[in-house]
Amino acid sequence: WIQPVAYTVSRTKTPADTLHHLIITLIKQLQGARLFVKALICDQGGSNITLASKLGVTPEEPFFVLEGRKIYFLYDTPHLLKCTRNNLRAPHKLHIGQEIVDWSFITQLYESSHPLKLKLAKKLTDNHIYRKPFNNMKVKYASQVMSESVSVAIDVFIALGVLPASAKPTADFLEKIDKLFDCLNSSSVKKANDKLRYAISEGSEHLAFLRECLSWVERWKFDGPRQPHTVEAWKVTLKAILLLWDDLFQDFDFRVLLTRWLQQDPLENLFGLLRLKHGCNDNPNVLQFTSGLKHISVGKLVALFSEGNCEQDRSTVLAQMSEPPHSLPTTCDAAPTVDMLPDEEQPVSHDIVEDNVLYYVGGYLVQQFLLHRPPHCVCNTLLKNADRQLCASHQYFAMFKASNISSDLFGNVTMPSDDCFQDIKAMEACFLEYIGVVAHLPNVSGVLAGILHSCMGRQKFCSEECKKAFVHLFARIRLLWHIRFVNISLAKQRTRKSAAARKMRKFL
């Protein structure tokens, strides 16, 4: 649960001395009511940094003692990730020992993807790469660009010779920072996959990984005469979480710790609700703020804006008169998506990068087909590649995307047969040729399936029914990817400058 306990009104930013007095007074009052404060979380605002200094917080001792109790000081993890991205994009190269992390390699990866071609890093847009108004505030832009997917894309480009070997430290950095963010953003008690998005517990792999990351961050050094505060903030936060877990486990009998609760998201979401209470008012006055806070405290009944900067914190207000709604929007793992921009006037050619993406997507199609295949289907051996060895350059992306399984180079990734891969390439070329012609027709998926059926010439199926089912699966999924990209392209054309447009988007 969450509970707002106090707020103050200030004409300008609150000075660190005032913050220090308010926080110490509030913590004493809470401890007097037998509510023990264990952590203080904030962003890297100037007053907050000064406050940490006044409290005696250091990377070696990221806590302060009040009335005999340790209170740990942490910086908001999403804010740290954004600041790290901003420092790399300044541009400031990051030196980690003898290795150099260079943002220019990420830029080259993005700019090398022609709009007509399939992309390895499918989520990257201009907002991820270049400085634009307000995009520095979006957490998703930082988490998506500093991710394992972009790391894999850079690895593929290195293997293909598109990027030099000196880009490898950048790929390794993105992979590790993505893993660190997963570790500090856990929301599930049980482990679901090979990610660290589950709770810290005694003896879990998180503790050793956090200690490793602490020594890793200590070797960070950005270009320039002065080091950004972000480096020290990472060290303070990592050390504080390790000490906080020991404290909670030993003295309070905690068995798990979900690190997503060690963030400012509940506070940011509260501010989002307050803005919505008065007609999407970005700057409510004191009276509006007070009345809105009272209303929210009575019942957390207003849904958050779906495009907000914070994830749902799944918390409830401690003291409330009515129950919150039980139904919440759910999300599911989306199918792998491919961004493209068809153009009928230009010929479509498949280069090695496109082949890498098509091979990986082909494996996904085979996997989905076999999961929902018709009864009595025996196409398993016909569609899959039995020799799970690296034998061609178009397999690099699938290999790098695979989970780390020592006995199998391609891990859990499905490998399509050579004939299946060639037919998928043919269907992709056919799709790009005809989508502009048939997009206006009813039952466009069925029309496309009829056209694409003639492209399937090499792959053998156990029956004509299976062949039709596979073609229909390709047409349906490929059409969804096409619609998604068209919608993104149209959204880019909308003006984002006027206040009216910004407020209207909150309702769309």
UniProtKB/TrEMBL annotation:
Residues 264-291 form the Transposable element P transposase-like RNase H C-terminal domain. It comes from the Eukaryota. It holds the Pfam family TNP-like_RNaseH_C. Residues 1-56 form the Transposable element P transposase-like RNase H domain. InterPro entries: TNP-like_GBD, TNP-like_RNaseH_C, TNP-like_RNaseH_N. Residues 79-192 form the Transposable element P transposase-like GTP-binding insertion domain. This is Putative transposase ovary overexpressed. It comes from Rhipicephalus microplus (Cattle tick).
